[in-house]
């Protein structure tokens, strides 16, 4: 049986900024229009955290039973390494999804926006079929698009909507920025795994684009948030505070552009996530006070 430490590593804690950042950005946007609600904000954060841990376990399970994780370069895979039974990892994933559904239902009851149940169900299905099912869309180069939608647009705008009952132009810019950051994290992950994914037949976007174009895509994605900061800054000059997070990208950009491969790319995922988190905190402050 896997140890507690192995279960924690299998949850891929380094991906949590992808869940935390959009909630922070959406909450900042809500505060900016005097609609901050701590209860629904915390529930939204709980939903996001449970979903990302659930999708990490689901990916571990689905990739593990397909055999695509046996030669993986990155962090521990519970199923692929044999540390945990596939059924246990699958059950852990669905337990996280179930708890996320309960937290989401609490939001719906508090806000009265019952149509959000459909959005929640779509998020859970998207999390499972990323690598699950007979035709996982993550194996067809659509992972980055899904991450942009779910951990960018849906997470940021959803966090604002459940607090304010509306969305704003600023929040759309923030959602595009966070979605781009999240997609960049996945691009870096899949760039690292191109050799093993080619070997196992997993067609991620990085496999389809190839090494050079994947690196170009990463650079473009991490620059999009700062373009959004400039656009938001035309109406709210405080948004330019987000540029204070740019130095956090110096090392990951140098790593990716410099042609690093394999394990050398692992810190890039962490560093990109931290830059996303810093950008979101600074932008949330700007939206709240601007």
Any overview of this molecule?
By secondary structure, this protein is mostly helical. The chain is 70% helix and 0% strand. α2 packs antiparallel against α3. The protein is globular, with a radius of gyration of 18 Å. The relative contact order is 0.15.
So how many helices? 12
Order of helices and strands: HHHHHHHHHHHH
Give the CA-CA distance, first to last residue.
Answer: 52 Å
Look up the CATH topology: Farnesyl Diphosphate Synthase
Uncertain regions spanning at least 5 consecutive residues? none
The CATH architecture classification is: Orthogonal Bundle
The helical percent reads: over 70%
Radius of gyration over alpha carbons? 18 Å
CATH class: Mainly Alpha
Summed up:
The chain has 290 residues and is mostly helical.
Provide the descriptors you would attach to this structure in a database record:
290 residues; mainly alpha; Farnesyl Diphosphate Synthase; 12 helices; globular; UBIAD1; MenA; transferase; EC 2.5.1.74; UbiA_prenyltransferase
Topology readout:
Layout: H1 4-10, H2 17-32, H3 38-66, H4 86-111, H5 116-128, H6 143-164, H7 169-192, H8 194-200, H9 205-209, H10 211-233, H11 250-257, H12 266-289
Helix pairs in contact: 2-3, 2-6, 2-7, 2-12, 3-4, 3-5, 3-6, 4-5, 6-7, 7-10, 7-12, 11-12
EC number: 2.5.1.74
Main location: membrane
InterPro entries: MenA, UbiA_prenyltransferase, UbiA_sf, UBIAD1
